[in-house]
Structure prediction request, 466 residues.
Amino acid sequence: FSLGSTTFQSKVLERLYCWRFIVTLICSNACKALSGSITVPGDKSISHRALMIGTLAVGETVIEGLLEGEDVMATLQAMRQLGAEIVKGEDPKDQLWHIHGRGIGGLVEPDNILDLGNSGTAARLITGLISSHDITATIVGDASLNSRPMKRVLEPLKKIGAQFFTREGDKLPITIKGTNQALPSEITMEIASAQVKSSILFAGLNAAGHTVVIEPTPSRDHTEKMLSHFGAEIMTEKTTDGFRKITLVGQPELTGRKVIIPGDISSAAFIIVGALITPGSDVEIKNVGINPLRTGLLDCLKEMGADLKILKVRENAGEKIADIKIKYKRLKGITVPKSRAPSMIDEYPILSIAASVAEGVSVFNGVEELRVKESDRLTAMAEGLRACGIGTKMTEDSLTITGKGGSPDGGTLIKSQLDHRIAMSFLVMGLISKKSISVDDAQPIETSFPGFIHFMNQLGANMELS
Ligand code: S3P
Prediction:
């Protein structure tokens, strides 16, 4: 077993060392107020899962509201390379995607590397999928993804029988040699991570018997909900020591389904905080996913005194959806407990902007996971906030922010470091900073929130590309 031809190897290396050369600077200037009613693009986590589970289902899956951001398109391309037939419907009005799945055990060996760009979710979940198929595949990513830890999924996946060939430190590029005789397993996770949980469950789909995952703190459960929607038998229970135990019955027959994807609360978060901190704002965001394991940010903002209303709560395929109404309100600092981290893990960068504008001190505890996101977000936030005139104190796993009780200074150029959420957070700060805030690279925003600048300007923001 080898990595293959020299051309193949040089492609992997070329991807490993490549940097983006097309960099677009964005500048966010102070604006009057945000107002209006909008919908945000589809949920990224649910979009990835719809493509992957649709690929493993028999028959046709139809997806409405798929996020067409770079991360999800990387998954879509990988699913095609693994044998799924995926096309976009011809009617420009309905924007539906159609998948003809392969069935569990039916993935084919890709004849080229799988390039997953910036997406940690794609890398971890697809590694799980491939692990229980008798195929070999190599996955690569951009400079950010290639520096992120993979050991957290490789260790449990080795237990089911997969083999991995990695770089020093278990980083991408990784070559996976899967097995068609995957063993059922019981894994107790050390960290709360939906990516690790989902990777193990995806591998367990093609293992005979039960795969059991035990989580210390509940993480987003989109995988469980969607597998059940497609016909898998998957049970969740609370253990006597307060952990969450998920049991999946292996080798189910998944049947193609219609999936309706709600707006992404992690994208809505930028608009929510933008409206809360910009005087005079009054915004409504329609059709947002409010899965209770994703709404930690809303709890924090309410504790900070936000004027936030959750309206018309409804449900589809087990996922809660609502409209959110936000009005400007002066905020006060809060302490965010470690236990809340899994339900708002992607929202700390934007919460740090709300905390900078709030009156008083905010403390984010137990947030060491932020160091291994698309960038080291703890450092990126602390340094960026300091450059904008905000007092911060960082430890290995916490961040303390002394709020200004009003507009931060701004007047800085923030490095996005291939991290979409760092870029968008500081652009939101620019809505009210005394001097404008620029971000050196707009491209990463396309991974999760295509059209971000357009959406913000439509509501009254003053952001420009240069
Ligand atoms: C995700 C899980 C989270 C989150 C990521 C999306 C998912 O990562 O940060 O943006 O879709 O499962 P972890 O599982 O590493 O916390």
Notes: The radius of gyration is 22 Å. The CA atoms of residues 337 and 365 lie 6 Å apart. Residues 1-10, 16-21 have pLDDT under 50 and may be disordered.
